[in-house]
Amino acid sequence: MNLQWQIERFDALELRQLYQLLQLRQAVFAVEQQGHALLRRAIDCCALFDGNEGGVQAIRISAQAYLEPFYRVHGFAPQGDCYIEDGIKHLEMLRSGESLVQDKNK
Predict the structure, then answer these.
(1) Residue 19: half-sphere exposure toward Cβ, Cα within 13 Å
(2) What is the pLDDT of residues 26-78, one digit of tens each?
(3) In the 3-class helix/strand/coil scheme, how is the chain assigned residue by residue?
(4) What is the pLDDT of the chain when averaged over all its residues?
(5) Residue 99: CB partners within 8 Å, gap ≥ 6?
(6) How far is CA 3 from its chain centroid?
(7) Distance of CA 59 to CAs 67, 81, 99, Å?
(8) Which of 53, 69, 78, 90 is the most buried (most CB within 10 A)?
(9) Is beta strand 88-95 parallel, antiparallel or unpaired with respect to 83-85?
(10) Are 60 and 73 contacting, i.e. CB atoms less than 8 angstroms apart?
């Protein structure tokens, strides 16, 4: 599979693009068990992006709790306690901009 990444600022997205991204997000969750390789590539892509405002931005996610070890490997750290969302345990996690810069320079 050959993927093409495109990075846009949130405020530059057209309504149709936002809707398509939300549809894609839903589809990715539907096949989450096969999607770990794609997720790794998405994280790597973020690590290469410097942002339009100068400097790398931190990444904050709401991860399903059972995926905490996976995200830790990619530099994310838990922020607070688990919570329930849609009947599933989640955990807020943060990957600092500094860790993204370190990955970019490897």
Answers:
(1) 3
(2) 666 655 556 667 777 777 666 656 555 555 677 888 999 998 998 898 889 99
(3) CCCCCCCCCHHHCCHHHHHHHHHHHHHHHHCHHHCHHHHHHHHHHHHHCCCCCCCCCCEEEEEEHHHHHHHHHCCCEECCCCEEECCEEEEEEEECHHHHHHHHCC
(4) 76
(5) 75
(6) 16
(7) 16, 18, 10
(8) 90
(9) antiparallel
(10) no
Residues present in the chain in total = 106
- Adjacent-strand bridge partners of 91: 63
For residue 28 the two structure tokens come to: 């990715």
Q: Give the up-direction half-sphere exposure of residue 85: CA atoms within 13 A in the CB hemisphere.
A: 10
Closest CA to 76 of 106, 100, 51, 50: 100
Tokens of residue 86, six digits? 């849609």
Which residue do the tokens 């830790």 mark?
72
Query: Which whole-number Å values give the CA distances from 30 to 8, 24, 33, 34, 35, in the listed order?
Result: 24, 10, 8, 9, 9
The answer to whether the pTM exceeds 0.70 is no
